[in-house]
Request: fold
Amino acid sequence: MDHHQLVKSCLRGDAVAQKQLYEHFAAGMLGVCYRYTKSMTDAEDVLQEGFIMVYKNLHQFKFEGELGGWIRRIMVNTAINYLKKQSRYQTELLFTEGGLHPVSNDDPAVSMDTKELAGLIRQLPPGYQAIFNMHAVEGYSHVEIGRIMGINEGTSRSQYARARALLISWINKLSETKTETYARP
Amino acid sequence: MHDPKFEKDVQQKMEELSFIPSESVWENVEKEIRKEKKRRVPVFWFFLLAGIMLTGGYYALFWKSSSTGRHPAGFPSAATTALASRNPNGSVRGAYKPGKTSVGTPDSGLANTASAVNTGNSLAAGSASHPRVVIRTFVRGNSQTGKETHGREGARQHPGGVQEERTSSGSDLATAEPFTKKQPKPGGAVGANAVIGGNESAENSIPSKNSIPSKNHVPIKDSIHTADNIHSTDSASAKNILKPANKALTHADKPVDPLDKSVDKKTASARKLNVPHRWKIGLTAGGGVSAVDRSLFRRSSAAELSSFATTFAAYPPGWLTRPSTIRQGFSFSAGAFGSRALTRKLSFSVGLNYHYYSTSIQTGPALSQAAAYPSSLMISLNAGNTYAARGAYSAGDEGVHTGQYHLLELPVSVQWQFARLRRLPLFWETGFAVSELVGANILHFDGTSGTYYKDNSLFRKTQVSLSTAVMVGVPAAGRGILLGPEIQYGLTDLLKNNIGDAQHLLYGGVKLAFMLGK
Reply:
C-alpha cells in the first residue's frame, strides 16, 4: 500500500481512504493499546481516541518516517494520557512503591504465547506497565520516558527494573506450572 | 546490567500482538472526524465574512477619512470624475456660467446625488470676461431633480457638478449568546467514584474520555464540559444546563455496567438537554461613529479620473468651489432581540432596532430669503418647489449642518462562541439587517448653483446591510453582558438610481447586549 498516496487522499477528505488507513493499522494498534490498558474495552477507547488524533493531525505527518511508526507514537501518547487521567481518580499511585521482586540471574527465554505474555504485562501495576512497555517494547530511553510521564529519569529506571523483575518472576512461575502440567502423566 | 535478549524477545512477541477491533470503534471515529469537518465549514465562512467586513470597514471609515482633503482645492477627485462619467448622455457636462463655480470633490466624502437644476438663466447672465465654471454632473431621471441643461451656445462643457446626498442603511447586530459566571466543576466527585484497578476490574472503570463518544462508558468528561459550558450561557440557561450535568454525574456515581447501552442513551439525552432550545429575549444598544463610504464599490475607472483631472487642472486655484467634506458623525442604536441556541456554541437571533446615523458638512448661509438671492438660484426643482422651500443652503463654511438618518432595522444574525479569554467567553457575531429609512434631513449638493438642498425622495428607503462584531462576555449584575466592537456596512446604494459612485452607510462602534430574565 502506498502510504504517501493514502495520506494525501485522507487529507482530501476521501472517506474510502480514511477507512483504508484505519483498517490497515487498527489491528496492530489495538495490540499496542491493549498492552497499556487493563481491558479490551479501555484499549478500544484508547484506539478510538488515538485514531481521531491521527486524522486530526495527519497534515503534520511529513513522510520522514514510517506512517506506522508515527501512528504508533500517537497511540502510545494517547495511552499515556489515558493513564494519567485515570490516575487522577484513583487513590493508588501510578508508580507503586515496593521492594524488588526476587529474580534469578538468568533471564528466561520468552517462549510463551504472545497473548499470554501480553496478559502478564497487563497485570503489572499501571506505572510498571507503562514504563515497561515504553522502554522494553517501544524502545524509549528513560530520559524520554521521564519527560513524557513527568517523572525523573531515575524513577523511570527503578520502576523499569522492578517491572522487569516482577514480570520475569511471573514468567518463570508460569513456565514451571506448565512444565509440571506437561510432566504429569 | 540487563540482558537485552529478554527485551528483544518481548519486543518481538509484542510486535505480533494484534486484535480486531469492534465495529463501533470505526463508527465512532468516523462520526467524530465527519463532525469535525462539518464544524469547520461555518467557522471558515464566519471568519471570511467577518474579516472582509472588518477590513472594508476599517478602510472606509478610518483610512479613507484620514486621506480626505489632500487634494488641492478645485482639483477634482476621483468621485467627481465618476459623477461626470455618469452623465446619462455619456458625455462630460458643464458650462461656463457667470458667478460662482462649484466643483464636487467627492474624495471628501460628499455624496453626489442627482441634482436637477435649470441653469439656463444663469448661463444667459454669464459674463464673458469672467466665465464661471459650472460643473454639471449628471441628470437624474427623477422628475423632482429636474433636468440638466448642457451644450449651450457659448458655454463650455465640463464634467463636474457635485451634489451631496447621504442616506443610511444598516443593521444592528442581533443577539449575543449570554453567559454567566463559571460554575464549579464536578470533576472531583467524578474522580472519587472512578474505579481504576490493576486487574480486569478496570472493565467497569469510568473512562476519562472527553469529546469522543465513549464505548460502553459514561462520558464523564462530557458532563464536566457541560458544567464548563455554563460559563458561556446565560444565567437563565445555566440552571437548565446544570440539571443534565448533575444527572450525568448521578449515573457516574453508580457502578456502570459496560454492556448497558442504556447508559449511553441516558447520557446522550442529558447532553441534548444542555442546549436550551428556547427563545430568549434581550436588549441591545450601541454607540459609535457613522460615515458615508463610496470607495468599496467605486464605479469610475482610472481613465475617467485621469481625463477629469486633466480638464480641471487648467483652471486657476480659487475658481472652483467644492462642496464640503462629509465628516463622520455620532451614531447609536437601541433595540430588542430574540435569541435561540442552535448548539452549545452557536445561536441565532432576530430583532428590531432603531438606528440613528449622522454626518456633518459645512455650509454657507441658509437660503431662506429666496427673494434676496439672484434669480439664477431661484431654481424650480419641481412644480413650484424652490430651494427656499426645501431648506437650502449655499456653499460655504459659515455653518455646520448635521445630517441625520433614522432607520428601523430588522437584524438577523448568528453568534458563535469561538474562544475564551481569561475565562471570559469571546463571541463572534455576524449577520445582516433589512432596514427602512423612516426619516432624514440630509442635504444634497447642486453643482450648478453651488447650493445644498433637501430631497428625501432621492433616497432608497429600504436598505440591506451586513454587520459583524466581536464581543466578550462580562458577568454583571447576575446576568451576562456582551460588549465589543461592531462594524456595519450598507450593501445597498443610498440613492435610488445608479448615478455616480455608490454610497453606503458605514457604522463602527461598541455594541452592548444583555438578556432579560434569569
